[in-house]
Specification:
Blueprint: E1 6-9, H1 13-24, E2 29-32, E3 44-45, E4 54-55, H2 62-66, H3 68-73, E5 82-83, E6 89-92, E7 98-101, H4 105-110, H5 116-128, H6 130-137, H7 147-157, H8 161-168, H9 172-182, H10 195-207, E8 212-213, H11 218-230, E9 234-236, E10 253-255, H12 259-266, H13 272-279, E11 286-294, E12 310-313, H14 317-328, E13 338-341, E14 356-364, H15 373-383, E15 391-397, H16 399-405, H17 421-425, E16 442-444, H18 458-470
Parallel strand pairs: 1-2, 1-10, 2-9, 10-16
Antiparallel strand pairs: 3-4, 5-8, 6-7, 11-14, 11-15, 12-13, 13-14
Helix pairs in contact: 1-11, 1-18, 5-10, 7-10, 8-9, 9-10, 9-14
């Protein structure tokens, strides 16, 4: 494509979304991607043995199915199919018990015994108004469209996850269920605003589910690529951008990268004050990830665990809190909180010959070289005795492997930057238009901008609108 009207650097979900919005608006759009396959963290590969498909990073997509911009693209017309397991989430507990998140708020609450009324009260208003709340939540910090609803959510979201769980719930199951969802924040559970992610993922589970994409997360990328090509956009793979001089001199450029990469590519185009803001951006913890090919499905003790694609392994609230606190202190815990995805339960296309694909990771300090294999597998064995006898092959990824795989994953951080209170408000700076930079031609569209991490494309949508607003 000669003389594009806009260029996007990076073909992750946000970069592709930005490109689609611009192309649909009539602009000639070119996307540059360093890798041989588009998708960023939304890729699928045969990591263990031939014929078994593993999601390299993201695997389960509550915000993907809820995303207003993905819905507007009608990605089902481009091949995307969401698969919903019977239960969005199961949190096994010792003794063969489990806390279960069902699509039905009432059914979920009824499983929680004495905490049923409290759980229903916590999520009822938010779940009933999920579309309205997400419209405000999935964008930059500004005066909300639904201020009273947003304020009610905010008053709870600003609390620590531990405080909220203990104040609402008395039983082990409800506290553990909420703690596991809140731990997706990569924060210690006693940190301010660590409850926000738990609330958002809970209401997303009830309102939209926690689905996987048939064929793997790469299917999401493939549908976005097809949508972009339908809008006459173009992607150039194996095209790494390391300098501003490689880019066209006449059009806006949107970067699906983190502040560190932006500084390396074009930092000299910014005033010193903005450079310092980008340099101060905090990336947070990394992850250690394992993928397994198993000879059969995992023998979970809890019956509900056989009917979900997503599990949280961490025991009770106290144990999860201890694990995440150790991680934030630069340590690893002997019993780490482990996130598990078992797509083979609902998607037969992932494997063949009766085998099973399993995906799991735990949070670790950035750049940690600690091999967490034994500790992660011990957690699975704890809730599924006999699991280790089923292992045919495994694949490990340390934090450094994630950064090598995707330069946006600084120190193994997959969230585009820490989501504590400060960096939720300043992502990467506090402005109504955080996607723009001091250079009128340069924009950020990555998860280092609001609303932050997740496969939802909303960062790209808002960045594209910022570009169109300047034309």
């Amino acid at each position: 494509m000669r003389n594009p009207d806009a260029v996007v650097v990076g073909a992750g979900p946000n970069g592709l979304t930005a490109a689609i919005i611009l192309a649909k608006s009539g602009l000639r759009v070119q996307v540059y991607e360093a890798a041989s396959t588009p998708g960023g963290g939304t890729r699928t590969a045969e990591l263990t043995v031939p014929g078994v498909l593993h999601d390299v990073c993201s695997a389960v997509h509550p915000l993907g199915v809820a995303s207003p911009v993905f819905q507007s693209f009608r990605l089902q017309d481009f091949g995307l199919e969401w698969i919903h397991p019977r239960y969005p989430l199961v949190h096994p507990l010792d003794g063969g018990k489990a806390a279960v998140l069902e699509r039905s708020l009432r059914a979920t609450a009824e499983r929680l015994g004495a905490d049923a009324a409290a759980y229903h009260r916590l999520f009822e208003n938010f779940t009933e108004n999920a579309d309205a709340l997400l419209r405000d939540f999935l964008g930059p910090v500004q005066f909300p469209v639904h201020p009273f609803l947003y304020a009610r959510f905010g008053l709870k979201a600003l609390r620590s996850a531990e405080t909220l769980a203990r104040s609402y719930f008395k039983g082990e199951s409800a506290r553990a269920l909420f703690a596991g969802m809140a731990a997706h924040s990569f924060l210690a559970l006693d940190e301010t605003a660590s409850a926000a992610v738990g609330l958002m993922l809970g209401l997303a589970g009830h309102a939209y589910g926690w689905p996987i994409a048939r064929g793997g997360s790469q299917s999401i990328t493939s549908s976005l690529v097809a949508c972009l090509k339908h809008a006459a956009g173009e992607i150039m793979l194996n095209h790494r951008i390391t300098s501003w001089d490689q880019l066209p001199a006449h059009c806006p450029v949107l970067f699906d990268v983190t502040p560190q990469q932006l500084l390396k590519i074009c930092g000299d185009r910014f005033p010193l004050s903005y450079q310092k803001r980008l340099q101060a951006f905090e990336y947070g913890p990394g992850i250690f990830k394992l993928d397994w090919t198993l000879s059969a499905r995992v023998p979970w003790l809890a019956a509900a665990a056989h009917e979900t694609a997503t599990l949280h392994l961490g025991g009770n609230l106290e144990e999860i809190a201890a694990s995440e606190s150790a991680m934030r202190q630069g340590k690893v815990h002997p019993r780490p909180f482990v996130l598990i995805a078992q797509p083979s339960v609902v998607d037969a296309s992932r494997t063949r010959d009766g085998r099973s694909a399993l995906w799991g990771y735990c949070h670790v300090p950035p750049y940690s070289s600690e091999d967490m294999t034994d500790r992660i597998e011990a957690q699975i064995e704890r809730f599924a005795p006999g699991f280790q006898k089923l292992i045919i092959a495994r694949h490990r990824m340390f934090p450094a492997d994630f950064e090598a795989y995707n330069g946006n994953y600084i120190g193994g951080s997959i969230s585009g930057g820490l989501m504590n209170l400060r960096q939720t408000l300043q992502r990467p700076r506090l402005f109504s238009n955080p996607y723009a930079t001091p250079d009128p031609r340069i924009f950020l569209c990555s998860s280092s901008t609001p609303p932050g991490p997740g496969v939802h494309g909303m960062c790209g949508w808002h960045a594209a609108l910022a570009v169109l607003g300047r034309r």
